[in-house]
Amino acid sequence: METNPSSSSSSSCSSSSPAKKYDVFLSFRGDTRNSFTSHLDYALRKVGLFSIFKDDYKLPKGKDIETELMNAIEDSHVAVVVISEKYADSDWCLKELAKIVKCMGDSGRIRTIFYHVNLSHVRDVASADAEKQKDNSFWKALKEHAKNPSHSKYVESWTSALVEVAYKYADYVKRDTDEAIFIKNFVADISSKLGASIRTIEGLFGMVPRLTKLDSYVLDYSAANNVCFIGIHGMGGIGKTTLAEAYHMKVSHKFDGSCFLANIREVCETQANGLVDLQTKLLKDILGEDFQIGYVRNGINLIRSRFRAMKVLIILDDVLKSEQLEALANSHREKQGSKNELDIWFGPGSVIIVTTRDENLLTKRYEKCRVEYLDDNEALQLFSWKAFNSIEPPEEFNELSKEVVKYASNLPLALTVLGSLLRPIEKYLWESVLCRLRKCPEKDIVGKLKISYDYLDEVDQCIFLDIACFFKGLAKTNVIRILDGCEFNSEYGISNLLAKSLLSITEHDMIWMHDLLEETAKDIVRKKSRNELARQSRIWNKDDFYQILVNKEGTNEIEAIITHVDETKECSLEALSSMKKLRILDISTYNRIDFGGPEVDFDDCVGPELSNNLRCLRWNKFPYSKFPSSFQPQKLVQLNLWNSNIKQLWNNFAVVPNLQILYLFNCHKLSEIDPSIEHLKRLIILNLQFCRSLKKLPEEINCLASLQRLNITACSKVEKLPDNLEQLKNLTNLDIDRSGIKHLPSSIFFMEKLEFIRCGEEMKKSAVRENIISYRTTSKWLLRFCSDVRELDLIDCNLTGPEAFPEYFCKLASLEYLDLSKNPFSVLPPGINGLSSLRCLRLEHCKNLRSLEAELLPSSLEEVSVNYCTSLASFLDPLKPCHLSCSTYCLDCTELVRGQDGKMTALASLLRFLEDPHKRRGNLDFRFVVPQRDNKLPFWFINQSSTGSISIKLDPNWRNSELIGVAMVVCFPANSSTEENFSCNIRICGSENWETTMEMGVIGSRISGHLSLLYRSCNDTLERIQHLEPQSCDTLEFSFLSADDEHSVSCGPCGVRLVYEGDIEELEDITSIYINDQKDVQSSHSQRTRSSTAANEEMEQMRQRISILEQALETVRTQLNVVEATIIQPRQ
């Protein structure tokens, strides 16, 4: 709910009329004062219409009654007129009614209740019909008034007013009407129609979205007819109570009863029986009865029993402790001894709202609503309303007002206090007031904000003060590490401060707090020391620190110093020796500061006496070369001496057994680390970046069982990591970039927790190569480690098959160049297409490679070399679908051209290249080299020569055509002795000679003739020709030559074709015809094969039948022999 009484342009839920003093003006005759009207008055107040004018308690003594009555009518939003039988007898009542009709007329703000009267009598008071007026008490009363000279002049307006309300605004209560139900319905109706617009508080801004948010919670529960518990939480002064009040005013009429219990914390602190008093008020406000409760348990039982069937709205404001909630609204918890039954206190549809600074008080049944700061516009409106009674500051105060809003950081409490403070002050004093406020915040603001601090336990108070004075805006993890070093268990403490809205965490995990909370904390520190700087527990101001050093004022009261010094000043550090309780010392020096004067030589100077109670020592540009021998801080957790002169740390690190962070960035004079570093069993971070004098790392570093991060970046003299580095079981980050280390130890591959290594590109390549050859581990850090490797040489690594490649290999998304030559694998790993950036793949001399399926290769490839893969039988087969459009080199791949047509393979590849507009129009050349069985050229090349030179006539209109490039083809003879660098010389023959040379690349030794196909776009060569005179461009002459004249080999035949857009379609037709022809051949071959197979099967069947017949004949012969023997035997 936002009110904007002085401007119609602002967002507002109030009516357009000015704010009124009274919500309701009650007009009635004394005969209903203590009966119907009394009940109506009570019911209106119960739903929140608190400001009601009723003449028995609103008329001030000693003032003119009539004037006060008339003014009250004018200053009321709504008039409720109770017309009873004797209402017209009173001239006061009739005067009120006439004034009400005059002021409120047709506005809809009049509600008339005709109580036990005949409505027609009121409507007929103006009638002249004597019969109608016979029993009309209202007509008779007006007739009597007409006889009175002092009244007669008003009778006409009184009569008109009675008639108007009787016809327009009538509610009727008969003698048999249930008056309780009527009053309930009447109050609900008037509240719902008018309540939201009249119950306003001046100066509320930004309330609409917050109320809408509360409504959204309630709607969900109301739909299910459940009880809704809402917890409004936030820092002090943020507007929790204001929001709850506004919500109570907005919706209280919708409930059977409502109660706003304000200042619960204060009541419980200041009153002996505070909880009982609050329970009594709760029961009285909702039930209208006074209860003698006596003790809290009895109050709980009464609340539970009386409200169980009622739909109630209860707001508990500023709750501090859980026992306060338990005494007032502990509904819907599980009953003791029963897990499934809830203890119900309130009826369906009830809403219970709690405002608190402590989010931890809100159990799981509460919907949590954090109140946020006002936005800049809302904040300026609120301040302006308090300071100027307007939603905008006067123009001359505009910038000053914005400064105030900025100082208040949009906190409503501060804006309200400062607006009231500055309202009476002249403009010229505002700057002075603001300056004072920045040094000493307004006590009303500090007092309110300090309440949350006062209820923290001692440890949480220390955490709050440390963060406010030193750590606002720092990373949460770093702050926790420092505070935990002080034995604060700070993660739990920070969670408590978050719950109490004393802190917040940004989206980048930084700790933040409101500026005024920061100022409040610093004010607390100052007041605790009674404003004696030397006794102040925390020093954050550089001038204060300098004053302490100069005056040598250090005391045992100082616990922490975190400040920076940015001026060259002379001072002594003797004061530090007196600070025996100092636990944090953090000095940032932007310019070298003279600690002790210009005559001090720091190179051999021992540092100052420091407290052995230190937990954190951070000193940028620490000027001394070593610590005093007495400095043995057993509890030290963090030591940070970046950019310092330190030459030597402790001779025995055992004096700092709790050290977790050792940060020695750019300590350029540090030459060694003592082997006793092995005693630092808790060390997590060791940073030696830019320690250029450091010669080596001690082997004892391997004993640092907790070490997670080791950084020796730019330690150029450190040439070796310690052996057995795998003993660092917890190491996650290793940074050795620009150090003297050239090779990673093999133990690195067995460090399971390692997540990140930073080193040079060559070291990465070497490490990956070594890992693949010898270890093939799949540590999780390896993929991140190799993620930016662009080139990888795995030549002759004995990679025998897919299993030889580790899992991470096919995930190297940045890899552009990969050389797998001279490896014995027969197929590539199946996931190699995961190398999404790969541009060049070399597979030369892979003698066992038999097949290279194009669909398994990444589409990003621009060049593939399979030279001397003598077993390769299939690659870029024109009869198979293919997505590759890359240059290809197939020297001595004789097996390949036995299985597929080399010339058509080259043409099909060229077609795919030309069909890719990005490639054909770019600066990328296309090359294809393949063995050639004969010296015939592809017939697509319409210009051919039997030698290594060819001339072609240019079309006179070629400049106006869609010429896109030039394709060339040439045959090279066998040459088994050497590799050659071939080029093509292009010359214009005509009146103006012009020539250029196009490199064709190196062609290696070969046992047979090869065909080389080259395509180049016309972007550069032919564009330069276009600048010649047209008549000069007569003939193009192409000559293919070896660059080495001593071993020049004749080339030829050769062919050239100027490629136009339409030629791509012709090339596509040629490849399609070839594919179809080959399919026909294969089909015919297949048919012949099938016929041959059928004949063979028939012959086999004949052989089987002959075999069966032969077996049957043999059986017959056997049987005949037996018979013959039987016949012959008797004859003997």
UniProtKB/TrEMBL annotation:
EC number: 3.2.2.6
Keywords noted in UniProt: Coiled coil, Hydrolase, Leucine-rich repeat, NAD, Plant defense, Repeat
Domain TIR: 20-194
Organism the protein comes from: Rhamnella rubrinervis
Catalytic reactions of this protein: NAD(+) + H2O = ADP-D-ribose + nicotinamide + H(+)
Entry's Gene Ontology molecular function annotations: ADP binding; NAD+ nucleosidase activity, cyclic ADP-ribose generating
Coiled coil segments of this chain: 1092-1126
Pfam families: C-JID (PF20160), LRR_1 (PF00560), NB-ARC (PF00931), TIR (PF01582), WHD_ROQ1 (PF23282)
Protein name per Swiss-Prot or TrEMBL: ADP-ribosyl cyclase/cyclic ADP-ribose hydrolase
Signal peptide feature range: none
SMART domains: LRR_TYP, TIR
Biological-process GO terms, alphabetical: defense response; signal transduction
